[in-house]
Write a structure and sequence with these properties.
The chain is an alpha+beta fold. It has 19 helices and 16 strands.
Length: 552
Amino acid sequence: GINAEYGGTRATMKSALQMINPNADAVTNKGQALAINTAAAQGLAGVMRSNIGPTGTMKMLVDGAGEITLTKDGSHLLASMQIMHPTAQLISRAAAAQDDVVGDGTSSTVVFIGELLKQASRYLTEGVHPRLIADGFDVAKALALEYLETFKVAASANDREMLVSAARTALSTKVSGDLCDLLTDIVVDAILTIRQEDVPIDAHMVEIQCMKHRLGVDTKLIRGLVLDHGPRHPDMPSRVENAFIFTCSLEMEYEKTEVNSAWYYNTADQREKQIDAERSVVNRVVESVIALKKKVCDGTDKKFVVINLLGIDPLSLDMFAREGIMALRRAKRRNMERLNLLTGATQVNSYHDLEPDVLGEAGLVYETTLGDEKFTFVEEVKKPHSCSILVRGPNNYTISMVNSAIRDGLRTVKNCIEFETLVPGAGAFEIGCAAYLLDNLDKAEGRAKLGVQSFAEALLVVPKAISENSGYDVQDSIIKMQEQLRKVPGSKVGFNVNTGDVLDPVASGIFDTYLAKRHMVSSSPVIANQLLLVDEILKAGGKKEKKDPMKG
């Protein structure tokens, strides 16, 4: 009876902090912290659970200005939701960190953390110490990563079919059917375009340009570059074929001096000379470019395009226009990098000794006007190592949805190529891993086995969510999958969202990225453990004494 009595007093015991300072703010009494953390984790998991899988439902976000966004992309949701609870914020930050690297699997991570704590609480209420469960989670994590290594499938960077499957699996959980098929091809082609042998893939070399017209399904890939401004002179050609591209960072307008200086002149003649001197500085630059154009273009049907990082003043533009040169000013620095990769040009920073080998080539450069905005397209390039995706949509919300889907898709394909491995999807890994953990319970000692059991149970939340979101009976679906796995040990058993039966994910082309699964298995238990081992939540910071106004 002593234990029961002691337990009883302990539950109502105030936080020990109250003994030290009766005015201190303790957010919880002893023993409550775990319940609060678990509730927060499960609350967040409850919101995200219905997003998992291709049949996940949408969430409608309404911001302060009344703008409406519909999304089922986990990371987008976490970034836009107002989360007050500190524990929930911790989890959402961890998931957001995963999205930055992997681009997929955020919802699964959040839901998995919630489920780990939920399964752990079954044993904790029976008096098992949280430390034992946490130790069990650590053992289970090591086993799960071991299993992942045996479960993964090799994918070659040249196997377009595999890359398309992986991209489609990631995108189908974010956008609707028609758009998903379109974007899948776009992101795979974009990454294959910019990929160079033995060079790390830089996804920033894919320019994403947004145009607000037509529909989301009119989004397309351009093996070239789209610049968001046009030539600045009415007489310049707006369409140029078979052109040399000259990229430069040259001053083609008169700059004021760095220090404050003043000119004094006595006669109009001196003023004229001074203006000529100012002008000749700029003219020298422009003329050297025109001389290069004449050198390479005269006697051929080649055209010439100048793209400058800095300004070009009206007089210089006029000189270019007379020569039939298309000139663009103030290009973005990022686009200059992409242009050099695309056309093979070398950026020029000085107008001395201009040689033809700094020029790049493009088959077609043309401008398009859309409302008030002008866009310049550089296309038909010989060896593109950069490309543009033209995102179209009728409104800002469609454009931002397509945009974030493309970004996630690009990362998914990039990770596939870099790791050359994929993991069969449709819940197959989770079902297989749970069975593997239960078979290897003896790897954990004593009561830590309970932690491994909880981990195995918690893994099943992903296939459960997929089945629940497709409108099937959860237990029924899980049992079907487990029975199939027992019949054929070592097989890969996924869930078919269309029929509610089991399927072979490899044959159906459903693949998750290896990185997303590895991240989910390695980061979730760490966060769950941290939350399990918290036994009090205290307010930080000393209390400020109120000043008595009479004492000054």
